[in-house]
Amino acid sequence: MNIPVIISELKFKAVRSSGAGGQHVNKVSSKVELSFNISDSKGMTDEEKLRISQKLVSRITKSDDLILYCGDTRSQHKNKELVISRFLDILKAGLHIPKPRKRSRPSKSSIKKRLENKKRQGLKKSNRKKPLL
What we know:
Layout: H1 3-8, E1 11-15, E2 31-37, H2 46-55, E3 65-70, H3 76-95, H4 108-126
Antiparallel strand pairs: 1-2, 2-3
């Protein structure tokens, strides 16, 4: 993954933010929309594109675009920085390959402890019963 190439391929659009804010919010476009076309990217290999399109299938549009929004702050520049950092985090999480789980067995001493504890609990409960006459 070539991050500078990917960042240069990003497309930004400023949009009006939703929510309260008075008269000023109706005039200023501080919310930032980031769109990134995965299939046309030159900053990723084919395997990376395939992995991301499989992992982020719910976030990707039919035209193979990944779209993110950020309207957290009142500054368009801060929103742009935030949305870029979120985008890179999402890409890194999508490309993360988890380590395979190694199967393990419980040790003999742990099995012995568990069985002894079960035996003790069983005795405790059987002692609560009324004695047979």
